[in-house]
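Revision sheet: structure tokens.
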Amino acid sequence: MRITLSALSLIGFAQIAVGQGAPPSDVIADSTIRISADGVCHIKDSSMPCVDVAQYLLSRHLAQNGHVHIVVDATSKYESVAAALKSLQSAGLKIGFINDSHR
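Predicted:
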């Protein structure tokens, strides 16, 4: 038992020493998804199918309480928007809607 605890302690110290136990320094607090008329989602300089937006954001270390804004081209198809929302929801991200009727 002592050997196991000692080994676990050494592994824990090794992870801290190489930074594996520390939170990533490149955490994204807010992000904007732009859905173009051709049904492609754009986040910063990256383009992807809308079904992959959550995977992309999580791989970029989206903050646990981060906000994701979605900007939709007026001629986008509903299916593209639905795919992005489903991707975000299936990844466990909360979804809320804000109606800005002044635009």
